[in-house]
């Protein structure tokens, strides 16, 4: 198949989210009752793939699922949003990843996670599907897969001339090999992950800027540090800039970071400059917090663009 420079290949986790909404999160050893439970398609990479597809990208996925009912539901959900799933490998006898999510009245969440088949994708799978990387221009990848597979995919992407967008969540326990940062065109940690990678605790704007400088010194090319309701600190190739999100009433922040990165990559794939892509992603991310669920909360490109038009009129 001919390579398309604007197509996005997503790699990482696909999970089923088992979600409870409650007045407050329980303390250790405490039980808090609620009658509000739902299942939602999720996983950081699954969310990012759907976000990129809804927000204007042409998206394919490379990963692993099992042959259980959750895996079948997750495949169907991604296909319904136009994500190409023919390169998702099925591991017989394995199960999909599962995330158990609790969300309080202010939209703050607490998450526990088991990877299931996500943990079974290997560097050998990357090598065996080398030609797949020739068909896409962007690799959008998260760290919810084995670290050696993560690094193998990034190396393969650069051999094939792809733009690499990395979500380092969760931060790999293994040291990041020295050859990896220069291969990563964009890295988007949140403030906690940025601090773990750079060794600088982010507590305010000044420490966030110091953390940005440290990531640059590690040779990450264009870091983006998301700061929750305080916006995003971005390196645009020349300097650091702060982007603030629109003011919205948040009810569920579960997939906000994933929506941001999916929207950002989709915008880049459509030829937008970094600042434009960050602004677009900030609005999409904020809009996603106004609805419950992970993939169920992701807006479409037309909805985001209409929101931005209305904001400019104010």
UniProtKB/TrEMBL annotation:
<keyword id="KW-0963">Cytoplasm</keyword>
<dbReference type="Pfam" id="PF00294">
    <property type="entry name" value="PfkB"/>
</dbReference>
<protein>
    <recommendedName>
        <fullName>Ribokinase</fullName>
        <ecNumber>2.7.1.15</ecNumber>
    </recommendedName>
</protein>
<comment type="similarity">
    <text>Belongs to the carbohydrate kinase PfkB family. Ribokinase subfamily.</text>
</comment>
<dbReference type="GO" id="GO:0004747">
    <property type="term" value="F:ribokinase activity"/>
</dbReference>
<feature type="binding site">
    <location>
        <begin position="226"/>
        <end position="231"/>
    </location>
    <ligand>
        <name>ATP</name>
    </ligand>
</feature>
<dbReference type="GO" id="GO:0046872">
    <property type="term" value="F:metal ion binding"/>
</dbReference>
<feature type="binding site">
    <location>
        <position position="288"/>
    </location>
    <ligand>
        <name>K(+)</name>
    </ligand>
</feature>
<comment type="function">
    <text>Catalyzes the phosphorylation of ribose at O-5 in a reaction requiring ATP and magnesium. The resulting D-ribose-5-phosphate can then be used either for sythesis of nucleotides, histidine, and tryptophan, or as a component of the pentose phosphate pathway.</text>
</comment>
<dbReference type="InterPro" id="IPR002139">
    <property type="entry name" value="Ribo/fructo_kinase"/>
</dbReference>
<keyword id="KW-0479">Metal-binding</keyword>
<comment type="pathway">
    <text>Carbohydrate metabolism; D-ribose degradation; D-ribose 5-phosphate from beta-D-ribopyranose: step 2/2.</text>
</comment>
<feature type="binding site">
    <location>
        <position position="190"/>
    </location>
    <ligand>
        <name>ATP</name>
    </ligand>
</feature>
<dbReference type="InterPro" id="IPR002173">
    <property type="entry name" value="Carboh/pur_kinase_PfkB_CS"/>
</dbReference>
<feature type="binding site">
    <location>
        <position position="254"/>
    </location>
    <ligand>
        <name>K(+)</name>
    </ligand>
</feature>
<dbReference type="InterPro" id="IPR011877">
    <property type="entry name" value="Ribokinase"/>
</dbReference>
<feature type="binding site">
    <location>
        <position position="293"/>
    </location>
    <ligand>
        <name>K(+)</name>
    </ligand>
</feature>
<dbReference type="InterPro" id="IPR029056">
    <property type="entry name" value="Ribokinase-like"/>
</dbReference>
<feature type="binding site">
    <location>
        <begin position="257"/>
        <end position="258"/>
    </location>
    <ligand>
        <name>ATP</name>
    </ligand>
</feature>
<comment type="similarity">
    <text>Belongs to the carbohydrate kinase pfkB family.</text>
</comment>
<feature type="binding site">
    <location>
        <position position="258"/>
    </location>
    <ligand>
        <name>substrate</name>
    </ligand>
</feature>
<keyword id="KW-0808">Transferase</keyword>
<keyword id="KW-0067">ATP-binding</keyword>
<keyword id="KW-0630">Potassium</keyword>
<feature type="binding site">
    <location>
        <position position="297"/>
    </location>
    <ligand>
        <name>K(+)</name>
    </ligand>
</feature>
<feature type="binding site">
    <location>
        <position position="144"/>
    </location>
    <ligand>
        <name>substrate</name>
    </ligand>
</feature>
<feature type="binding site">
    <location>
        <position position="252"/>
    </location>
    <ligand>
        <name>K(+)</name>
    </ligand>
</feature>
<feature type="binding site">
    <location>
        <begin position="15"/>
        <end position="17"/>
    </location>
    <ligand>
        <name>substrate</name>
    </ligand>
</feature>
<dbReference type="GO" id="GO:0019303">
    <property type="term" value="P:D-ribose catabolic process"/>
</dbReference>
<feature type="active site" description="Proton acceptor">
    <location>
        <position position="258"/>
    </location>
</feature>
<keyword id="KW-0547">Nucleotide-binding</keyword>
<dbReference type="InterPro" id="IPR011611">
    <property type="entry name" value="PfkB_dom"/>
</dbReference>
<comment type="subunit">
    <text>Homodimer.</text>
</comment>
<keyword id="KW-0119">Carbohydrate metabolism</keyword>
<dbReference type="GO" id="GO:0005524">
    <property type="term" value="F:ATP binding"/>
</dbReference>
<keyword id="KW-0418">Kinase</keyword>
<keyword id="KW-0460">Magnesium</keyword>
<dbReference type="GO" id="GO:0005829">
    <property type="term" value="C:cytosol"/>
</dbReference>
<feature type="binding site">
    <location>
        <begin position="43"/>
        <end position="47"/>
    </location>
    <ligand>
        <name>substrate</name>
    </ligand>
</feature>
<feature type="domain" description="Carbohydrate kinase PfkB">
    <location>
        <begin position="6"/>
        <end position="301"/>
    </location>
</feature>
<feature type="binding site">
    <location>
        <position position="291"/>
    </location>
    <ligand>
        <name>K(+)</name>
    </ligand>
</feature>
